[in-house]
């Protein structure tokens, strides 16, 4: 209790908490985009449940990883060397997660460009299998993003209570933002393609990080923000043209 009181009275601790909360929220954007795109592929009655399950698992994984900080720190130690390149468990997990994101985003882009016809005979079984497959894929990416998130937290502060609060706050923000973001993506088909492009970029970044090439996150999010701003202008332009056509008609 004395430790917590001293921590609460420390201005440095509050600054560290604020910084870490912002970092965790930013890192959670990748996770949230993936969950939103994936759950929008499910039947409408299953989407909210899938999002909540996916974000809930993200919280459980992050808190579980925080309880094993000593193990998490060891994940950054080299365990394998190939052609002079050393790899840690973290590196291999990031590479696997990046490859999965590349495969998933490319597959979704292909389906968007050349959609396969629906098979009504499999509609009844598709709901259960689709939901289970979505949860499995969300869980896999939750693990990758959670490890990245917790290692970032460990690198920024040594105080476990600060890490726990930052993680909980960031996941709560993800939970609040999940529905509006998913609805926005679902209502604007062109945004889906942009978000899939983001996932490809994030996947490449994870692979680069796994091979030891550090890519500043600021560059990634600046590119995402610029692309999103251009898409917003395109949406406003389309709506203005549609309104003008209605008025002239």
Automatic annotation (TrEMBL):
Q: Does the keyword Membrane apply?
A: yes
Entry membrane topology: Multi-pass membrane protein
| Any matching Pfam family | TerC
Ranges that cross the membrane: 12-34, 55-75, 87-105, 126-147, 159-178, 190-212, 218-236
Report the subcellular localization: Membrane
UniProt keyword annotations, A-Z: Membrane, Transmembrane, Transmembrane helix
Q: Which domain of life is it from?
A: Bacteria
- Is Membrane found in the keyword set? yes
Q: Which protein family is it in?
A: Belongs to the TerC family.
Identify this protein by name: TerC family protein
What organism, scientifically named, is this protein from?
A: Pseudomonas agronomica
